[in-house]
Write a structure and sequence with these properties.
The protein has four helices and no strands. By secondary structure, the protein is mostly helical.
């Protein structure tokens, strides 16, 4: 949970780098919470406005942090944040998904120091 809250604390920070673990923790927890809210809205029916409002507020509050951690994860791979636009191209978004699952560069790049700590060389 520390990685999840670390991503939330850096919600407006689009520079720097995010480790693969931070990215996966943030997206994993958000996915679980989205499914939980979806299940609750199905269980209580769409007439229950409280669940619908909670879902909408959660989506609004996590929209910018999601993009920020995605940009920082792309930076960890040594690529520009503009690389994220591949996600909008139907087949090439699988390339982005593959890239995001790869380990980051263990050395300092032009986007900042490694989130994994210094390496011994």
């Amino acid at each position: 949970m520390e990685l999840y809250f670390n991503a939330l604390r850096n919600y407006i920070n689009f520079s720097g780098r995010a480790s693969r673990e931070e990215f996966l923790a943030f997206y994993g927890v958000n996915t679980l919470l989205y499914f939980l809210l979806f299940y609750l809205s199905e269980y209580f029916g769409y007439q229950n406005l409280l669940v619908e409002w909670l879902s909408a507020i959660f989506a609004i509050l996590t929209f910018i942090p999601m993009w920020a951690v995605l940009f920082r994860r792309i930076h960890d791979l040594g690529k520009s944040g503009w690389y994220v636009l591949i996600a909008f191209i139907p087949i090439l978004n699988l390339v982005l998904l593959y890239q995001l699952s790869q380990p980051g560069k263990p050395f300092t790049n032009k986007y900042g120091p490694s989130p994994y700590g210094p390496i011994d060389r």
